[in-house]
């Protein structure tokens, strides 16, 4: 199937070498955003093998900084604010893959140090069968109800980007902004009384197993559970509203295999690469009309009107301060 992305259909041919080559991507976990299918496609199309890597965004940046003088990774994937940090810290180097010009302004570094590859919308990934008869929550405020004690999970917002994105969504929902995180701090402090589960890394499997019945997560993970797992799963876009957030990639500065890294990034932004994200229920970075069989599996467009974009540069600037406050003030 072909997809029209932007004004023109971009067709790229990827010639695989005779022998497999190895490259390293930090934070490419197979159970997150269907990176498993992307890694398989990179292997099949480019004959480049990349090992699975389950770091989160914060851990990825920490590793890149620690290895600055002797990098191990060739490419890296992170939430947009962490990608901005990586560029500012000099561990991401400029590269303009094919299709870069079609990524909307604001979702790429003009100097090419990072660029969006897809989008997600924050909400609740719910294992309905694990709720013990409780109703599916519809709002952030619902989660403070004692009936959900021990059922709610969110990734550590001081480390994992999706955790921070969830905190930004909560903060906006209750009247805060990127200069005032008091509403989010108050919310998580109150939610702490309901014994939430706060993992540091992606927890898709823990929702599927029922260990975490309700997880602050992206729509694409919830849709994957709903349509591909045995069980009863739902995605809820909170009644108060939420945020839409891009994930980005970059070429690692002085990485050991820069040409392999460039070929990987070219493929991810190609027609074929972007189509893989749509199969995983993600919105691609390059403008694309979703295949009808995918679009019909999403919540109605009217629901998505409650999800907003933010100033991602300001979001990045506020991240460290929020993380410090969270660690100091939320019990």
TrEMBL record:
One of its GO terms (cellular component) is outer membrane-bounded periplasmic space. GO terms for biological process: thiamine transport. One of its GO terms (molecular function) is thiamine binding. Keywords: Signal. Residues 1-20 form the signal peptide. This is ABC transporter substrate-binding protein. It comes from Thalassorhabdomicrobium marinisediminis.
């Amino acid at each position: 199937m072909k997809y029209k992305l932007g004004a023109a259909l971009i067709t790229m041919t990827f010639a695989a070498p005779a022998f497999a080559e190895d490259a390293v991507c930090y934070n490419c976990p197979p159970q997150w955003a269907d990176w498993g299918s992307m890694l398989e496609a990179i292997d099949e199309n480019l004959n480049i093998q990349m090992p699975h890597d389950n770091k989160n965004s914060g851990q990825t940046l920490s590793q890149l900084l620690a290895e600055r003088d002797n990098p191990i990774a060739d490419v890296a994937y992170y939430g947009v604010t962490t990608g901005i940090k990586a560029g500012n810290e000099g561990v991401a180097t400029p590269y303009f893959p094919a299709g870069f010009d079609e990524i909307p302004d604001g979702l790429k570094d003009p100097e090419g140090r990072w660029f969006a590859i897809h989008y997600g919308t924050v909400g609740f990934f719910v294992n309905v069968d694990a709720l013990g008869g409780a109703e599916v929550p519809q709002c952030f405020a619902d989660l403070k109800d004692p009936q959900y004690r021990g059922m709610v999970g969110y990734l550590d917002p001081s480390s994992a980007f999706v955790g921070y994105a969830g905190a930004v969504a909560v903060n906006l929902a209750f009247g805060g902004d990127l200069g005032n995180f008091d509403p989010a701090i108050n919310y998580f402090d109150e939610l702490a009384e309901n014994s939430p589960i706060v993992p540091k890394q992606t927890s898709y499997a823990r929702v599927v197993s029922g260990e975490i019945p309700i997880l602050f997560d992206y729509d694409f993970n919830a849709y994957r559970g709903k349509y591909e797992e045995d069980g009863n799963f739902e995605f809820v876009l909170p009644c108060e509203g939420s945020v839409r957030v891009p994930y980005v990639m970059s070429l690692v500065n002085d990485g050991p295999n820069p040409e392999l890294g460039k070929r990987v990034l070219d493929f991810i932004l190609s027609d074929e690469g972007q189509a893989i994200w749509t199969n995983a229920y993600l919105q691609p970075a390059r403008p694309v009309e979703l295949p009808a069989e995918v679009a019909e599996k999403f919540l109605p467009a009217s629901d998505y009107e409650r999800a907003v974009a933010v100033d991602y540069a300001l979001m990045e600037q506020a991240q460290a301060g929020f993380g410090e406050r969270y660690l100091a003030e939320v019990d």
